Amino acid sequence: MAEIEWKITEQMLSQELVSTDNRWHISKTQSGDADAEFFLTNYDLLLSPHGTGRDYRECFESFIADCDDYIRKVIAIRDEARMHMEKLLKAAESLENQNRESSHEH
To answer: What superkingdom heads the lineage (predicted)?
Structure first.
């Protein structure tokens, strides 16, 4: 009977993290020993500004107004992301300090 030989393929890992309100999505992929890659998006920003109307003028006016709304939304979401990142960095720094203190105690 012939022996079975197994070929080891490169492992591909994929994970998606989704916020409880389904607005924030982070995809994490990693192939073999390569560094992980992350892709972050906010679903509130998927629909780009657009305009509608009965004529060119209305279409452009509504587009410009929608751009203004979109800019406000982008700024708010950017600020939300910045605050979240600051919280993560503070939490990581706190953990590092705790680890340093506990390693000095032993």
So the answer is: Bacteria
